[in-house]
Structure formats: structure tokens, C-alpha cells
Amino acid sequence: MERLPRSFFEDYTPSVAKRLLGQLLVRRIGRRFLSGMLVEVEAYRGRDDPASHAFRGETPRNRVMFGEVGKAYVYFTYGFHHCLCVKTERKGVPGAILVRALEPLEGIELMKKNRGKEELTELASGPGKLTQALKIDRRLNGEDLVLSERLFLARGKDAALEIRDSSRIGVDRGLEFRWRYFIGGNQFVSRGKPKT
Questions:
Q1: What pairs with residue 34 in β-bridges?
Q2: Quick one: fold of 6-183?
């Protein structure tokens, strides 16, 4: 399995977000591997993006967004679930990609157990579902997705994808940015609807 190199993430966040579609997210728990193909992501930047955690500058919570590229930014939201982001751009320049959904490929039975669900399309078709299925929480905040044995990104199959875009889901600001990217027609894309 070929890992994505750090240079993959050193670019304008929306560009990286589009390239992430079709790549693999891999989670190792003990000797077991859980993996899936990324089918939906959202890009977030800094002071030019009012929907971003980095809009008002660096804080203890968003520090990973300003650090080394290729790191995991994991945060807890709505008092209910965790979200996984990938740090982009370059050190000192905030940027992150929210991983919104994946198509399960490996470790599906363990994902079902983690989620308490049997339906395949319910395992990781949303950011909170995904982190629950893969057992991702704040303990993985700052994890190096290039070098880690617990959580990393790898190359998917080279195939032409129908990439679509929209405004982002669950935000009230920055609606002019069509920075949500997803694979058209994929049944594992979340059912959330962006505001217009």
C-alpha cells in the first residue's frame, strides 16, 4: 500500500481536497485494519474563510491547522461526535480538509460493531459516522498521517472520477465558496444538504 507523501498536502486546500477523492483512509487497531475510499470532503482555509476554525487566528483548539502538513486535526463538535480533518497548505498557513464520508473497503464487520449498524451505507456516510466507525477521537489529534501506523492516507486506484462540488454543509458563512467535493453518484456520500 503506497502512502500519500507529505508533498501531496502542500498545496492550495481546495485543490488538495479534490485530489483526496478516491484515495484511501486506513485505520489500524491492534492487528486489524479498517479502510475506505474517500468519497466526500470539504476544504477550509484561514482569514479568507469565515466558516473556518482558523478565521480568527490560532488557538489551542485549532493549532494543528497552522502546523506541519499531513497531520490529523480531530475536534469534538455539537457535544456529540468527532470530526477528522487533514492539514494542508504549508506550515504557518492555516488549511484543513474535513473528511466527510468514505466507502468502506476493509474491516467492515468491525465498523458495523463500532457503529451498531448493519447497513453498509450507514457506516461512514457522514463525518461523525466515519469517526465512530473507525474509532477516531481526540487522542489522534496531531497524528502524522504520513508516518503513523495507527491512521494514514494511501493511494487509491487510478480511475476517472466524476467530481462534483457544492457549498459546504452545516455552515452559515462562506456559502459563496463551493468547497465541498464529492464523487457523483456514489451511494456512500452523506445525505446532508448545503445551504444556498
A1: 27
A2: 3-methyladenine DNA Glycosylase; Chain A (3.10.300)
